[in-house]
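Example record used in the benchmark description.
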Amino acid sequence: MVDASVERYMERGFTNLSVCFGCTGGQHRSVYAAQHMAEHIHHTFGVQVNLMHREQNIEQTFKQQ
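Model output (structure tokens):
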């Protein structure tokens, strides 16, 4: 579902798309899912991805390829 949204946003020239995961206290599934989603989008589409784990106060940027 996210791949289709990214593709459509890119086709339309949009520059920002947010994907959020429900809070589990910053542990386990939400952190894992967010990390792997960010890596997948970055590798699949070559776009910059800004990942933020709010509960852990960690930010990571995957630069545009």
